[in-house]
Amino acid sequence: MIRFILLSVCAAVPFFTLAQSTTVYKCVIKGVTTFSQTPCAKDAQVITLKDINVIEAYKSSTPDKGISDTSVDDYLEVQQIEREIKRLELSIAQNQKEYAAKKQQIDYMTQDKANRLGASSIADAIATKTNSLKQAYDASINQMQQKIESLKQRQQQLSQNP
């Protein structure tokens, strides 16, 4: 129990300051203003500086500007949404590249492969394979685009909140 109390006191000490002050002497020597810890002339002006509690000083110098935990949370969520949108856009671009590469491979179809697919000609086999490939990639890309649109709507909602 003693250890807990001692630990609590040690943890709380940085947040409390005693009203301490530092004395500085201001003198003018040969037309130059000088500050010192000790009196530097007979007519030295005494200046007392109080230690500042940084936490309290910060609180009083920054009035509430409408920033709350929710606005910070909203900001962080907007940032997360932007990252997710970028990721989805990159995935769409990657899918489009993959589609183009696979489409190019289909274009090199031989008569033998077309016969195995049951097509009457190479052109029919290429059209059939390209159509099924396009449907698969279009479905995936459309799904990602819908997700992007919903994320943009959510982002707009968060940006409009005061």
UniProtKB/TrEMBL annotation:
Keywords: Coiled coil, Signal. Residues 78-105, 134-161 form a coiled coil. InterPro entries: DUF4124 (IPR025392). It comes from the Bacteria. Residues 13-50 form the DUF4124 domain. Residues 1-19 form the signal peptide. It holds the Pfam family DUF4124. This is DUF4124 domain-containing protein. It comes from Pseudoalteromonas fuliginea.
